[in-house]
Amino acid sequence: xxxxxxxxxxxxxxxxxxxxxxxxxxxxxxxxxxxxxxxxxxxxxxxxxxxxxxxxxxxxxxxxxxxxxxxxxxxxxxxxxxxxxxxxxxxxxxxxxxxxxxxxxxxxxxxxxxxxxxxxxxxxxxxxxxxxxxxxxxxxxxxxxxxxxxxxxxxxxxxxxxxxxxxxxxxxxxxxxxxxxxxxxxxxxxxxxxxxxxxxxxxxxxxxxxxxxxxxxxxxxxxxxxxxxxxxxxxxxxxxxxxxxxxxxxxxxxxxxxxxxxxxxxxxxxxxxxxxxxxxxxxxxxxxxxxxx
Length: 293
Ligand SMILES: [Zn+2]
Description:
293 residues; alpha/beta; Aminopeptidase; 20% strand; binds zinc ion
């Protein structure tokens, strides 16, 4: 591993450890912890020289917020590429993989683009309230956010969510699927990164997969499938589909591979930081491509 990759890996690990070990479970039932996570994300953005803005709303009587930074496009600023992740967790789960991993990736990508001059605008967003009971409701952070995008008539040309990107396994049968039979068609070793979208996002799925295959050593499994198949819409990209935007999820497939999903055992020691680093580096290439094409 190159020295710069080692440094990136170590920073990713520190983000995950802070969120999952120092803070722990973070949701409206533990508002102080949720606030601590938000504050941590904001302080990181500031340390990269990126002023953040927030979108606040109330959920179960608790003030919550999405947090974003924007790298303004140079000549096509009104065409917007979004990458983000959720920072909340389910109760009784430190949520190292789901989804401190995605937030760590989002933060480090924001750092890497802080001085960039992309053609299109890039936004990095940390969403609150992805998990139940808010999941796929109007109080899901990304749903509140995508509603505002539509109200403002924003031209979101591509949206990527990093959802649970730290589990990679090499043993036969380590990968399962939501539908019987998919294992006959798709890999049964859980060593790949999945790029998942609905049928309307198939162009974006293909573009992302092409770049990831070219630029990373990770096996890439790309699928554009009907959004109603279990798992396909299980993160913040769903919220953008609801407004008609093209949106995809980069994921290790979460419960279909990671046995600690939504349990107290979802701790940082379970994360494969080497391969997670490759996911982040690949995502950087995807963002470069999407913001310049
Ligand atoms: Zn999640």
